[in-house]
Amino acid sequence: MDDDRYPLRATIRDVAERAGVSIGTASKALNDNGRLKTETRERVIAAAQELGFRPNSLAQSLHRTRSMTVGVLSTDSFGRFAFPIIEALEERLAEHGIAIFMCNATDDPAREKQHLDQLLGKRIDGLIVTGRRMDKRPPVAVPGQSMPVIYVFSQADDPEALCLLPDDYGGAMQAVQHLIGIGRKRIAHITGPETFEAVTLRHRGYRDALAAAGLTEIEGYYRRGKWSEAWGREAVAALFDGEGDLPDALFCGNDQIARGATDALRERGIAVPGAVAVVGFDNWDVMTRAARPPLSSIDMNLRELGRLAGERLIAMIAGERRKGVERLHCSLVVRQSSDPTQS
Predict the structure, then answer these.
(1) pLDDT tens-digit profile of 66-93?
(2) Phi, psi of 38 (to 5 degrees)
(3) Longest dimension (CA), the chain
(4) Which domains does the chain have, with CATH numbers?
(5) 189 and 251 Cβ atoms separated by less than 8 Å
(6) Phi/psi of residue 269, nearest 5 degrees
(7) Burial level of 283, CB count in 10 A (0-12/13-18/19+)?
(8) Whether the predicted model's global pTM rises above the 0.85 cut
(9) % helix / strand / coil in the chain, to the nearest 5?
(10) What is d(CA 298, CA 253) in angstroms, rounded to the nearest whole number?
(11) Kind and range of the H or E element at 179?
């Protein structure tokens, strides 16, 4: 094709954009259903022909037998983790003409049941369950177990469920390996409450990365507290105002802790990253870019997790069976707080 905007295989989104209509309208036109003006239908078909678009057999079978809607049930009232997942999920499903209904249960079982009943009443084809933490929760009670359900950034206490999660252990390994790679040997770990599975997995990754480099966890260097900037400042006070060897690096369990820690280090006249390098977790722009210096952090690739959820759900709606826990790789984003060239 000569059009540089479409260098890859055209999707229904491309067709809709070319025809100047919504994805839903393009889907109706291409599948010859719904009430559309003849002019609109012909414009969509012409756009599809220009782009070389061919609907795949999966999409066609879905349109013949399904409502083309899925539900999203979230307990993340702030949207910090859910929104990037849902945004990418919606984009992926829209490529197949599937729309979503989103409900926020805010950790209220009664409200969750009410939302679930409403979603089931809309005859959704599948359900995504997500939240603000990844610890196990009771499975959603779907009558008959015939509808596909996927837990994303959430886990069901059910071996038959499919759960998609970031690789907390691997992300922690990356963070500590990076700090070791820039020459740091006394690496402290400041993190959140041990009741979170993520805290346990990240601590394990921290210890294993140290061990692989021939280092050991120094007594007193593992600090657990709250997911807050205040705890980051408090932990730095405990680590740097006492006696004994001082850390030359901090691996923090989230970016809020890391930002509080860097503020506390700066107040003590301790240079970051010159004297102490700092790496956080989550890669939350609100924290990482506003910190002084900007924070290196582990990105959980939430958008990629959302797209994977869309792919898995499409396949399961078509009849594929999946279960178990899939962990998606995390990525290290290096910024000034652990960049050796800034020392």
Answers:
(1) 778 899 998 876 667 888 999 999 999 9
(2) -55, -40
(3) 80
(4) 12-55 (1.10.260.40), 65-167+302-330 (3.40.50.2300), 168-300+332-342 (3.40.50.2300)
(5) yes
(6) 75, 20
(7) buried
(8) no
(9) 45, 15, 40
(10) 10
(11) helix 168-181
